[in-house]
UniProtKB/TrEMBL annotation:
Domain (Enoyl reductase (ER)): residue spans on this chain: 11-321
Top-level division of the source organism's lineage: Bacteria
Lineage: Bacteria, Pseudomonadati, Pseudomonadota, Betaproteobacteria, Burkholderiales
SUPFAM superfamilies: GroES-like, NAD(P)-binding Rossmann-fold domains
A molecular function GO annotation: quinone reductase (NADPH) activity
Pfam families documented for this protein: ADH_N, ADH_zinc_N
TM helices/strands, residue ranges: none
Keywords tagged on the record: NADP, Oxidoreductase
Protein name: Quinone oxidoreductase
Gene3D superfamilies: Medium-chain alcohol dehydrogenases, catalytic domain, NAD(P)-binding Rossmann-like Domain
Length: 323
């Protein structure tokens, strides 16, 4: 038996229940993983509220690190005792132990602790595909990044600094601005008292940025479009404030803007591609260019509290559960 978070209806954090579940032995192509840490990501809120539909009842979470306890037939590149993380596969990471498809497991290198890795698997891989694949940054670019003090944001700050990118990051408070700057964000915009597009214009001599990475959505869409230079790119990589609806005529009027809505699964598959992404991320960590630790830690039974904190946008950095 294993304890796990389950939910039977969509709604607020109160729908999350801690239950005992059967785990069993791994079948062909599977591995059983005992979790050390489970990451809490904003996408988990989308699933909990029904913004992203799931068949119910169901588990929650797609991002965890732990150790392999058993493997099924046909598994060759993962063995018992391996430290692994994952970010793809079925929902259900909010648990002590679970059986997973072995081909989504990412071996963790020596020198990267479980605690550090718990903040990197989804969030660090997100920074990788945004900065290195969706809009490949090579250095010298000026970008606007929303929620720069969040879990992905603090990794993005460091990655931008490592690449030689000028990053303008939005944050909600002066305290978060200091944290983002300490992690490598070149300029910050405190949205509670500054106009985003106006400040971007001041920082770029009226030219605008080449690309905006916007995980906020509805509340920042207009400012994001107004911050772009002619033929700039809006990467809409999240909708924490609500979904985005764009009239394509507006894109023409604001300078022939490009828009993309990427999804991790299309960049992290096949497995060889996922492992290459992880290697680039871990190489930066091992070189000391990216440092990451949880901002907040909760017990598995406190998953609802973790969701309340994340949903309030009061968190800084990553939030993790400890089974």
């Amino acid at each position: 038996m294993s304890q796990a978070i389950r939910f039977y209806e969509t709604g607020g954090p109160e729908v999350l229940r801690l239950e005992n579940v059967e785990v069993g032995e791994p079948g062909p192509g599977q591995a059983r993983v005992r979790h050390a840490y489970v990451a809490v990501n904003f996408i988990d809120i989308y699933f909990r509220t029904g913004q992203y539909p799931l068949a119910l009842p169901n588990g929650l979470g797609s991002d965890a690190v732990g150790v392999v306890e058993a493997v099924g037939d046909g598994v060759s590149d993962i063995k018992v005792g391996d430290r692994v993380g994952y970010l793809l596969g079925p929902q259900g990471a909010y648990s002590e132990v679970r059986v997973m498809p072995a081909d989504v497991l990412i071996p963790l290198p020596d020198g990267v602790t479980d605690r550090t890795a718990s903040t990197l698997i989804m969030k660090g891989m997100t920074a990788q595909y945004l900065f290195r694949q969706v809009y490949p940054l090579n250095g010298g670019e000026t970008i606007l990044y929303h929620a720069a003090a969040g879990g992905v944001g603090l990794i993005a700050c460091q990655w931008a600094r490592a690449l030689g990118v000028t990053m303008i990051g939005t944050v909600s408070t002066d305290e978060k601005a200091e944290v983002a700057k300490a992690h490598g964000c070149t300029h910050t915009i405190v949205t509670s008292r500054e106009n985003i597009a106006k400040r971007v214009a001041e920082l770029t001599d009226g030219q605008g940025v080449e690309v905006v990475f916007d995980s906020v959505g509805k509340d920042t869409l207009e400012a994001s479009l107004d911050s772009l230079r002619v033929r700039g790119t809006l990467v809409s990589n999240g909708t924490s404030s609500g979904p985005v609806h764009i009239d394509t005529r507006v894109l023409a009027g604001k300078g022939s803007i490009w828009v993309t809505r990427p999804a991790m699964v299309h960049y992290a598959t096949p497995r060889s591609h996922m492992l290459a992404m992880a290697k680039e991320l871990f190489d930066l960590v091992l070189a000391g260019k990216i440092k990451s630790e949880p901002g907040r830690t909760y017990a598995l039974a406190e998953a609802a509290e973790a969701h309340r904190a994340l949903g309030s946008r009061k968190t800084v950095g990553s939030t993790v559960l400890v089974p």
